[in-house]
């Protein structure tokens, strides 16, 4: 799936089938379903889930908690526009 296809899928009521948890969480985040997205990634182990988890806490405005999750993901804390970060996460995770 390309980043454009992933973004286009947001017009649907459910995410594409067989998405990894981090991508599914990111999908729900874009739909404004923060709680649902958070539930999906909060128990995910690994850098992908931690990166989306960091993004979600940044969306929430909890920068300290986001910082913890960026460290868990091995990523520098983001500070640019949230939409840009969402696109960057989606693009990288879809390449894997």
Descriptive tags:
mainly alpha, 6 helices, 96 residues, globular, Serine Threonine Protein Phosphatase 5, Tetratricopeptide repeat
Would you give an account of this structure?
The protein is mainly alpha-helical and 96 residues long. It has one domain (18-95): Alpha Horseshoe (Serine Threonine Protein Phosphatase 5, Tetratricopeptide repeat), CATH 1.25.40. The chain has 6 helices and no strands. It has helices at residues 3-8, 21-30, 34-42, 47-60, 63-73, 82-95.
CATH class: Mainly Alpha
Compute the number of helices: 6
Assign a percent range to the helix content: 55-70%
Bulk shape: globular
Structural class: mainly alpha
Strand content: under 5%
Distance between the termini: 11 Å
* Series of H and E elements: HHHHHH
Would you tell me the overall average pLDDT?
96
- Enter the CATH topology name: Serine Threonine Protein Phosphatase 5, Tetratricopeptide repeat
CATH architecture: Alpha Horseshoe
Q: Let me know the number of strands.
A: 0
Short recap of the structure:
The protein is mainly alpha-helical and 96 residues long. It contains six helices and no strands.
Q: Which SSEs are present, and which pair or pack?
A:
Layout: H1 3-8, H2 21-30, H3 34-42, H4 47-60, H5 63-73, H6 82-95
